[in-house]
Amino acid sequence: MSRPFAVLLPFRPGDGLAGIAGHRADRRAAAGLALAAGLILVHAAAHAATAGAKPAVLETLWRWTPFLLGGFVWNIVISALAMAVGTALGFLLGIAQISQVRAVRAPSWFATQLLRNAPWLVLLFYCMYLLPFQLHVFGTRIGIPDWLKAAFGFALPVMAYVSEIVRGAIRSIPAGQWESAEALSFTRSQTIWMIVIPQCLKRMLPAWMNLYAIVTMASVLANVVGVSEGLTAAREMLAAEQRVELLLPVYAYVLLWFFAYCYPIARATVFLERRWAVAH
Amino acid sequence: MQKLLRSAALAIAMAALGGAAVQAEETLDKIKQSGKFVVGIKVDYRPFGYRNEKGEMLGLEHDLVADIAERLSARLGKKIEVEKVVVTAQNRMQFLQQGRIDFMIATMNDTPERRKIVDIIEPNYYASGVNLLTRKSNGIKTWENLKGKTVCTLQGAWYNKMLTEKYGFTAQPYAGPNEAAQATLDNRCIGFLDDDAHAASLLLGGGPWAEFEVPLETQAEAPWGMAIRFQNPELKDMLSKATAEWHRKGTIAALEKKWGIKPTKWVQTMQEKHKSQ
Question: Domain boundaries in chain A?
Fold first, then answer.
């Protein structure tokens, strides 16, 4: 850290308690604004609609809420499953990337780069149209539902991102840790699993949570390939109501659901980042 | 890298085909064995197929499927359950080919190209044409008035190319009827090149549509086809007879009334034709 020096440092948010409090208040205000903006949008449209004899927009939204939520649940299921599978595979891939064996390191680097730089929608298309919709195992048919295929499609990029997060975190552990472990006659795998990885977990968690929020928001892409989820439900609702004045409020409503789900994750990420920040 | 991707894709595709090759059995046998009639149907096209707020599927085509299921139950001598798979205009043909669904009734126009891919049931069960949903104040009277104008259309509609070439307007395609209708209300185009049945149902809704009309002579009237996979003569025969009976008994006309669709001339003509047979 810097030595004491007779100068008045500029105020930085995050320095001291007052700074943190101010910073948080700012963020809360921003969140409140975003929420209010969404609601106002919904309200304004509602007023426009009351001119006709039809039920108000808000009332219609309320009536359809269980249905829309039923769709939104699939976004959570798909993204959670994609994260679970992608994290497990990505973790192994990330460790393989720092392997001392070239034959392991090179292919895992290649797989990571390939999947990390491919558009998510393209990977999703591949999974949707190339995976069979059912498997024949010992004469019985086992159906593979669409949402499972979509989850697998999202797991591929997740795997690549997790691989990079793991590799980066391992690299960020100071060389001194490795050297001390070696001096204490730990083997390489003992060093990785007992010394390096436990320190990495803290560093990886904020990035990982960030990735989760991104995957949740990206899961609406499944709508494009015909998987039922929140946006599909919204579109089906619009088709049923056939009222164009609902178009914007319905999309705003879906946006609010995603915001309500993802914003706390973003807040928690910021909190953990600050709490576990490593002083250098 | 492209080569690698391509060979990987090929390998996966072959694995998928391997799974599909087992589908060679007759659909009717499969239905009898499993007791399930797997139907590809739409829920984004009111009043032909849509959902209510409980998520239940309903509409004209859903009623027709219920009727077919009853006929199947009677014929196969056991209760046949309908399993509905929601399809869209983009994936319906593929689902049928893959064997994911056994039967498709999804507001699909019967075209020669499609007949090469799936087996379309004759006679057709419905027909619709294309018209323009436009503001009365635009004063559009004939198709020729559209020359040089921008028209909102639906992505992937088979008539887009034909009509733009014929009448010299610019197509502005949208993903779905809701988006295209909103764009039309926002005056982003002179009108919405819409299915006449759909346009009529929007006008019935009133509200902002009170200032709109459907002024042109309906073009490109095309029949709609239900479809199954090839080499299912028994099922095809059964479905053909069912459709003929619908026309004869006026089932379709009754359903039009039930779902608030303006009676179409095509349905009346079919009814007269089949009655006289």
Answer: 16-174+201-275
Q: Which amino acid is at A81?
A: L
Residue B131 pLDDT level (bands cut at 50, 70, 90): very high
Binary contact (B207, A243; C-beta < 8 A): yes
- What average pLDDT does the segment A250-274 reach? 90
Q: How far apart are CA A73 and CA A225, in angstroms?
A: 18
Residue bearing the bigger pLDDT, A214 or B205: A214
Nearest to B103 by CA among B235, B268, B228, B11: B228
Neighbouring CB atoms inside 10 A of A192's CB total: 18
Instruction: Quote the pTM value.
Output: 0.76
Question: pLDDT value at position A22?
Answer: 47
Mean pLDDT of B61-77: 94
pLDDT of A4: 54
Which of A126, A131, A133, A245 is most worth mutating to test chain B (most B CB atoms within 10 A of its CB)?
A133
Å from B197 to nearest chain A CA?
Answer: 13
* Whole-Å CA distances, A279 to A196, A268, A274: 17, 20, 11
Mark whether B103 and B211 lie in a shared domain: no
How far is C-alpha A100 from the geometric centre of its chain's CA atoms? 31
What SS3 class is residue B120?
A: strand
Nearest CA to B125 out of B227, B228, B214, B8 is that of: B227
Q: Would you place residue A211 in the very low, low, confident or very high pLDDT band (cuts 50, 70, 90)?
A: very high
Q: What is the CATH number of domain A16-174+201-275?
A: 1.10.3720.10
Both B121 and B247 in one domain: the answer is yes
State the first-to-last Cα distance of chain A, in angstroms, to the nearest integer. 7
- Hey, is the C-beta of A116 within 8 angstroms of any chain B C-beta? no
